[in-house]
Design goal:
- The chain is mostly beta strands.
- The strands form three sheets. Strands 1, 2, 3 and 4 form a four-stranded antiparallel sheet that branches. The chain has a three-stranded antiparallel sheet with strand order 5-6-9, with no helix packed on it. The protein has a three-stranded mixed sheet with strand order 7-8-10, with no helix packed on it.
- The longest helix has 9 residues.
- The protein is globular and about 55 Å long.
- The C terminus is likely disordered.
Length: 190
C-alpha cells in the first residue's frame, strides 16, 4: 500500500480465490452469478483515514463485461488504538464510514446516521496539525412521538487545508474513521 502523500505499508497478500470469496460471501446461492474468465494482479485506488492510497488488487475479467472487477488483494490492518478516548459528553451515534476523499484532499465524504423525525445529519470538523476530528450530529430534531430508526446519509465535509497525512477521527468514539465498502464492512473493522 502506498499513500499519495508519501509513506507505505506492507500487508500480506490474499489469494485470488479468497478475495473473490470475500466479495461473494453475502450471496446465499450455491452457484456464482458471475463467470470469471481471467484473473491477474494489478492495483486499485482506495480512500483511507490517511488519504488516498494505491493497493494491490485482483482484477477479475468477467464474461459479458468490458472492465475488470477489482478486489483488494491485501488484508486490511487492524485499526490503531485511538489517540483519545470517547468523550461521554458527545451525544449521538458514531460515523458509519468514510466513502471518499476529494482529489485535492480539501473535502471528505462520510456516511452519518440521523433519525426519521429530524432534518438530516450534520458533521462538524475541528482540524489540528495531526488530525481531522469529525463530530456527527443531527439538525432540526422534532418533539413528540417518532419511530426509532436510523437513516444513513452521505455528508461532504469541507476542510481548511488538505487531509494529507492527518488521521480522520470520529469525535464520538475517538477512533479513526474506517473506509468501508458500501456493500459490506472491511473484515477487521467490523
Amino acid at each position: 500500500m502506498v499513500w499519495d502523500k508519501g509513506g507505505s505499508l506492507t500487508r500480506p497478500l490474499w489469494g485470488a480465490k479468497k478475495a473473490y470469496e470475500s466479495l461473494a460471501a453475502s450471496q446465499k446461492k450455491a452457484e456464482p452469478s458471475l463467470t470469471v474468465t481471467k484473473v491477474k494482479l494489478g492495483t486499485m485506488r482506495v480512500a483511507t483515514s490517511r488519504g488516498a492510497a494505491t493497493i494491490p488488487a485482483w482484477l477479475f475479467s468477467l464474461d459479458g463485461y468490458d472492465s475488470p472487477l477489482k478486489r483488494a488483494a491485501v488484508s486490511p490492518s487492524k485499526l490503531p488504538q485511538p489517540p483519545i478516548g470517547r468523550d461521554g459528553d458527545v451525544p449521538g451515534l458514531p460515523l458509519h464510514r468514510l466513502v471518499r476523499i476529494s482529489s485535492d484532499g480539501r473535502s471528505v465524504g462520510v456516511v452519518a446516521f440521523h433519525g426519521a423525525c429530524d432534518d438530516g445529519a450534520v458533521v462538524n470538523v475541528q482540524e489540528t496539525s495531526g488530525s481531522v476530528v469529525l463530530s456527527p450530529s443531527v439538525k432540526g430534531q422534532k418533539k413528540g412521538r417518532c419511530t426509532k430508526q436510523a437513516i444513513l446519509q452521505k455528508v461532504t465535509v469541507k476542510l481548511d487545508r488538505p487531509v494529507g497525512n492527518r488521521v480522520l477521527l470520529d469525535a464520538v468514539t475517538g477512533k479513526p474513521i474506517p473506509y468501508k465498502s458500501p456493500h459490506r464492512p472491511s473484515p477487521s473493522w467490523s
